[in-house]
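Tokens for chain A. Residues wanted.
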């Protein structure tokens, strides 16, 4: 876990898997989310080597809320809203999907935030 800072409070990056960043206390407003990314992308890149860029420079990062933490996928309909990270060697390897912002770059679009 790495603590990164935004205006008046600490936002915690709990974990990263591929190009998914799990956070708590993330800003609600899109403008503040983008500002947070711009202010912290260097720290995240140094610690987690994110983003993972393709040869043509394309990348896409998903920032997800960490919510109640990792949980077990029981294989029921109620678990269909889970995002699972199978490289985690325990049964509790899923989070409830909580997409906050997607950040990326492509040759056709340039930088994008959605």
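Reply:
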């Amino acid at each position: 876990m790495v603590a990164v800072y935004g205006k008046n409070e600490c936002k915690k990056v709990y974990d990263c898997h591929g190009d998914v960043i799990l956070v708590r206390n993330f800003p609600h407003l899109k403008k503040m989310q983008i500002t947070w990314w711009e202010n912290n992308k260097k720290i995240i890149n140094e610690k987690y080597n994110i983003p993972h860029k393709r040869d043509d420079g394309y990348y896409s990062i998903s920032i997800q809320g960490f919510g109640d933490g990792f949980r077990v996928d029981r294989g029921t309909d109620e678990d269909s809203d889970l995002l699972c990270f199978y490289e985690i060697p325990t049964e509790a390897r899923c989070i409830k999907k909580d997409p906050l912002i997607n950040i990326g770059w492509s040759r056709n679009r340039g930088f994008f935030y959605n």
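The beta strands are 2-6, 9-17, 20-24, 59-65, 71-72, 82-84, 92-96, 99-106, 110-113. The chain has one helix and nine strands.
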